[in-house]
């Protein structure tokens, strides 16, 4: 059983080597599955999509931290002390 294809666009490694820029343009900003014998070996993710993924992961981590800290004792701080 092969690996699932997690992209709408796929290209063989051989075709990618011939013209990487064309593969990126053809995907129109979406991830590209890099295939080896019709099995995904890697994914080429455009910079904007990668930045969005990283931002989402950062948000998930911040939510985890907030939930972890809920219920902790509050500390009163004066603005003058800062």
Q: Can you put this structure into words, describing what you see?
A:
With 82 residues, the chain is α+β, with helices and mostly antiparallel strands. The protein has one domain (9-70): YefM-like domain (YefM-like fold), CATH 3.40.1620. 45% of the residues lie in helices and 18% in strands. It is built from 3 helices and 3 strands. The chain has helices at 13-18, 20-27, 47-69, and strands at residues 9-12, 32-36, 39-44. It has a 3-stranded mixed β-sheet with strand order 1-2-3. The longest helix has 23 residues, at 47-69. The N and C termini lie far apart (60 Å). The relative contact order is 0.14. The model has no long low-confidence stretch (mean pLDDT 90).
Which descriptors would you attach to this protein?
82 residues, alpha+beta, YefM-like fold, 3-stranded mixed sheet, 3 helices, 3 strands, elongated, Antitoxin
Helix and strand topology:
Elements: E1 9-12, H1 13-18, H2 20-27, E2 32-36, E3 39-44, H3 47-69
Parallel strand pairs: 1-2
Antiparallel strand pairs: 2-3
Number of strands: 3
Helix content: 40-55%
End-to-end Cα distance = 60 Å
* CATH class call: Alpha Beta
Order of helices and strands: EHHEEH
Taken together, the total number of domains comes to 1
Mean pLDDT: 90
The radius of gyration is: 21 Å
**CATH architecture field:** 3-Layer(aba) Sandwich
- Summarize the main sheet: 3 strands, mixed
Strand content: 15-25%
The structure class reads alpha+beta
Query: For the largest beta sheet, what order do the strands appear in spatially?
Result: 1-2-3
**CATH homologous superfamily caption:** YefM-like domain
Poorly predicted spans = none
Number of helical elements: 3
- Classify the fold: give the CATH topology: YefM-like fold
Assign an overall shape: elongated
InterPro entries: Antitoxin_Phd/YefM, phD/YefM_antitoxin, YefM-like_sf
Organism: Sphingopyxis lindanitolerans
Protein name: Antitoxin
Family: Belongs to the phD/YefM antitoxin family.
């Amino acid at each position: 059983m092969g690996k699932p294809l997690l992209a709408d666009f796929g290209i063989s490694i051989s075709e990618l080597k011939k013209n990487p820029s064309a593969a990126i343009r053809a995907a129109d900003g979406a991830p590209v599955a890099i295939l080896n014998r019709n099995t995904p070996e890697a994914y080429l993710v455009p910079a904007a999509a990668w930045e969005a993924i990283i931002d989402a992961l950062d948000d998930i981590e911040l939510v985890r931290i907030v939930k972890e800290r809920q219920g902790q004792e509050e500390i009163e701080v004066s603005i003058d002390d800062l």
